[in-house]
Design goal:
It is built from 19 helices and ten strands. By secondary structure, the chain is of the alpha/beta class. Helix 2 packs antiparallel against helix 10, helix 6 packs antiparallel against helix 10 and helix 7 runs parallel beside helix 10.
């Protein structure tokens, strides 16, 4: 049963055990809640028969029933509320840990707002279903057969009169299940699209205002919200149909019990007490089944959210062993990669980046340079061939082992809404303040840090909003200085730097790259003319490998890039 709960609702082991306990508790509550009906029938039978000598026994039974009901309700509350609220925390922590182990390719195919909604909104919906619906539904599955036996043991016809219409109620849901599921999935998709649109508008607020698109965007958002409300209403129509038809059977149940009971009363088969008892039982069953129908609709509402968590949990993680690397040569052999099955980005790429050397990747935009850096650092996993460090295929090395030996500076810098000191310290979390300051000096950051009123303690805003593009870039370079890893990957690090700052950073880098494996991309080809090795990429393949002087003689692609670079410099400088 625990494995069933884990598969069905994507909960943790503890959550599955909690659901099992909660379901059992709900079953106990259902059973105990029927006891007063039985007691009323027994006490009435005693009074009608004139036997008052055992009245104390029934009074004691009533007291015991009340105590049992209080205990079972308390246990049910603990199982269905307290335990499941704890599970929501476990789910969120589990999702976060899972996301940490997934390759970057997973995130490139999904909107970040979608993932944040999964962690917050989806888990909240599952949590509510766990605390209010799932245990009650599973308790009903066991309670109804037990109740059927109990009621039919008293009187077969009255028992059937109570149970049969309520069994028919459960047949209503399959008739509308597909309709309800389609409505829920469509509404879920619309909510996700709205979330993505709102995030996009917030992120592009500057562009929207700059191009005077505010009214157009506002109109588009209102249209999406109106459409979402229409989809929501249509999905609720299916729920109303289910509940309406189901409730009809509830009232039929009471009528059937009254009709059958009256007939039996007239023939003398039962007394009025039995009729009263079964009427009370029918009312109680109606309440329970009403709750079960609402619970089932909530479970169907949560299904798309469970499916989203299942997708995250079933995505293959990057596995590998903890490996102590000693040599940091990076060797690529016949490497191939595609972001999707139909579009190949890299094909049959082979070259070596040696320790103590600088290897530059050059080529036209879209030729796969940045993708190669992501494969070398194992932010993505390649599809074909091998990438080896110290003779070991990196797919067999844990990402923790690999990232510990790798510093990466990408063109798109990500900073946190914290202080400059803490943003640089990300490169080495146990670094002293003095080490952070030294790294900032090497990356030529002191010029703008000293201008800030709080210096290293200045808060820089979300993604460094208080800094310029070049200043953000230099902070990311300072992280690399601080980490001082033996493999250094640089992707267009000078893209947001002016000529003077680029010169200063290049001077600092000359100290940083000593005895390291350095792989660099730069659109300013003049800055890579003196590197040890240049790999020329064309259409996702290696066109040539060599030094600047060698490639000028052997590579038409490289010569073309040099000519275009010189032409561009005339306009830039």
């Amino acid at each position: 049963m625990i494995q069933h709960f884990k598969r069905k609702f994507q909960v943790t082991d503890e959550g599955a055990r909690g659901l099992l306990k909660a379901s059992f508790s709900s079953l106990c509550v259902y059973i105990v809640s029927m006891s007063p009906v039985m007691l009323v029938m027994l006490i009435g039978d005693m009074l009608l028969s004139g036997n008052k000598h055992e009245s104390w026994l029934y009074i004691a039974s009533a007291v015991v029933t009340l105590i049992a009901l209080a205990i079972t309700l308390a246990i049910e509350y603990e199982g269905t509320y307290n335990a499941t609220y704890k599970e929501s925390a476990h789910l969120r922590i589990g999702i976060a840990k899972r996301l940490q182990s997934l390759p970057l390719s997973f995130f490139s195919k999904r909107n970040l707002s979608d993932l944040s909604q999964s962690i917050m909104s989806d888990v909240e919906a599952i949590e509510h279903a766990m605390s209010h619906s799932i245990p009650k539904i599973y308790a009903i599955y066991f309670f109804l057969p037990l109740l059927t036996v109990m009621l039919m043991a008293g009187n077969v016809w009255l028992g059937l009169a109570v149970i049969a219409p309520n069994v028919l109620r459960f047949l209503v849901l399959p008739l509308y299940r597909q309709q309800v599921e389609r409505g829920n999935k469509k509404f879920y998709k619309v909510l996700r699209e709205q979330s993505e649109k709102f995030q996009e508008v917030i992120e592009l607020n500057q562009e929207i205002k700059g191009f005077n698109l505010s009214q157009e965007i506002k109109r588009s958002l209102y249209e999406k919200m109106d459409y979402g409300e229409r989809i929501h209403l249509l999905s609720e129509v299916g729920n109303v149909q289910v509940m309406g038809l189901s409730s009809l059977f509830s009232f039929i149940s009471l009528g059937v019990v009254l009709a059958v009971g009256t007939q039996l009363l007239v023939t003398g088969s039962i007394n009025v007490l039995y009729l009263l008892g079964y009427m009370l039982a029918a009312i109680k069953v109606k309440e329970i089944v009403d709750i079960s129908n609402e619970s089932m609709l909530e479970i169907l509402f949560a299904e798309p959210r469970v499916a989203k968590l299942k997708e995250i949990n079933e995505t293959a993680v990057q596995e590998g062993a903890e490996v102590e690397l000693k040599n940091f040569d990076v060797e690529l052999t016949h490497v191939g990669f595609a972001y999707d099955k139909d579009t190949s980005v890299l094909s049959d790429v082979s070259f070596a980046a040696k320790q103590g050397e600088v290897t530059a990747l050059v080529g036209a935009s879209g030729c796969g340079k940045t993708t190669l850096l992501k494969l070398i650092s194992r932010l993505y996993d390649y599809d074909l061939g091998h990438i080896c460090i110290d003779g070991k295929d990196i797919k067999g090395i844990s990402t923790d082992s690999l990232f510990d030996k790798t510093s990466i500076v990408f063109q798109d810098v990500t900073l946190f809404n914290s202080t400059i000191m803490e943003n640089i310290r990300i490169g080495k979390l146990d670094a002293t303040d003095e080490e952070v300051r030294h790294a900032a000096q090497l990356a030529n950051c002191m010029e703008f840090i000293d201008r800030l009123p709080d210096g290293f303690n200045a808060t820089i805003g979300e993604n460094g909003a208080e800094l310029s593009g070049g200043e953000r870039q230099r902070l990311s370079i300072a992280r690399a200085f601080l980490k001082d890893a033996p493999i250094l990957i640089l992707d267009e690090i000078a893209a947001n730097l002016d000529i003077e700052n680029e010169r200063k950073v290049q001077e600092s880098l000359s100290k940083l790259i000593e005895n390291k494996t350095v792989v660099v991309i730069s659109h300013r080809l003049k800055s890579v003319e003196t590197v040890d090795k240049i790999v020329v990429l064309d259409g996702g393949k290696v066109e040539a490998v060599g030094t600047h002087a060698e490639l000028l003689k052997t590579s038409s692609t490289y010569k073309n890039l040099i000519e275009k670079s010189k032409l561009a410099e005339k306009f830039v400088y």
